[in-house]
Amino acid sequence: MRPLFDMHCHMLCNVDDGAKTPDIMFAMLEAAYEDGVRALCLTPHYSPYLFGDTFSKSERSFALLSDYVAKNHPDMRLFLGHELGYHHGCITALENGKCRTVAGSRYVLVDFPEKVNFFELSNAMKQLRSMGFQPILAHAERYRCLSSKFDWIRSFVEDGGVVQINASSVMGSWGLLAKMQWKKLLRLGLVHLICSDAHNMDSRPPRMSVCMEYLQKHCSEGTIRRLTWENAWQIVQDLPI
């Protein structure tokens, strides 16, 4: 079994709309481990208007999960970050540390509403870059405004931007448009990370391997390794991809 690095998941309990209890958090960790995951970046939402201040809550939950992993799976590596719901004033939260970057690096996982307009999304990326951050566009296949903007995505990538897609979208879990965009992004070589974006054990479980059959048919072994392991390690070490 090839090792996997899941850089986008909502496993920490009692923080956001992810795991609700420690038992669910531990069950999600076990499911991820069984799926082949050997490194995780926990990325609870940073969206104060939805979940309040998640900094302290995520810190406590991360400590609890770290103790569990140390006792049960010492070969698993854990890192902590946030998934930033982009909003007015969020740059200040990044600068003062209330919103975490990925493992303390310059990379920041950024989320937008599914119906965000292109002007808002592209300007947000410019603003983050101007402040010295390197944006990771979370679940890029889900943004309708990007369905005709693949030239912009290519420029974003050429300038060092990072594109993340969700493993389950290839199965149609976010609809036909997301499924089609997922495949086109992959075909054009505009993807850096495939992650679970897991929230629970039912509707959104931690299963990165759900897309593996498709990857094996359409990608080289080296590409699969980069998308599911190597690129994530570059990010947590604050290195370019």
Q: Can you walk me through this structure?
A:
The protein is α/β, with parallel strands linked by helices and 241 residues long. The protein has a single domain (4-236), classed as Alpha-Beta Barrel (TIM Barrel). Helices cover 41% and strands 16% of the residues. The protein has nine helices and nine strands. The strands form two sheets. A six-stranded parallel beta sheet has the order 3-5-6-7-8-9. It has a three-stranded parallel beta sheet with strand order 1-2-4. Helix 4 (90-95) links the parallel strand 5 (83-85) and strand 6 (107-111). Helix 1 packs across helix 3. The radius of gyration is 17 Å and the shape is globular.
Strand-helix topology:
Blueprint: E1 4-9, H1 22-35, E2 37-42, E3 45-46, H2 48-51, H3 55-72, E4 77-80, E5 83-85, H4 90-95, E6 107-111, H5 118-130, E7 134-137, H6 150-158, E8 162-166, H7 176-187, E9 193-195, H8 212-218, H9 221-236
Parallel strand pairs: 1-2, 2-4, 3-5, 5-6, 6-7, 7-8, 8-9
Helix pairs in contact: 1-3
Q: Count up the domains.
A: 1
Measure the end-to-end span.
24 Å
Q: What form results from the Cα inertia axes?
A: globular
Strand content: 15-25%
CATH class: Alpha Beta
Main beta sheet strand tally, sense and closure: 6 strands, parallel
Spans of at least 5 consecutive residues whose pLDDT stays below 50 are none
- Derived from helix and strand composition plus strand pairing, the structural class reads alpha/beta
Helical amount: 40-55%
The radius of gyration computed from the alpha-carbon positions, rounded to a whole number of angstroms, is 17 Å
Number of strands: 9
Query: In CATH terms, what is the architecture?
Result: Alpha-Beta Barrel
What is the CATH topology assignment?
TIM Barrel
List the secondary-structure elements in sequence, H or E.
EHEEHHEEHEHEHEHEHH
Mean pLDDT level: 96
Strand line-up of the largest beta sheet: 3-5-6-7-8-9
The CATH homologous superfamily is termed Metal-dependent hydrolases
Count, helices: 9
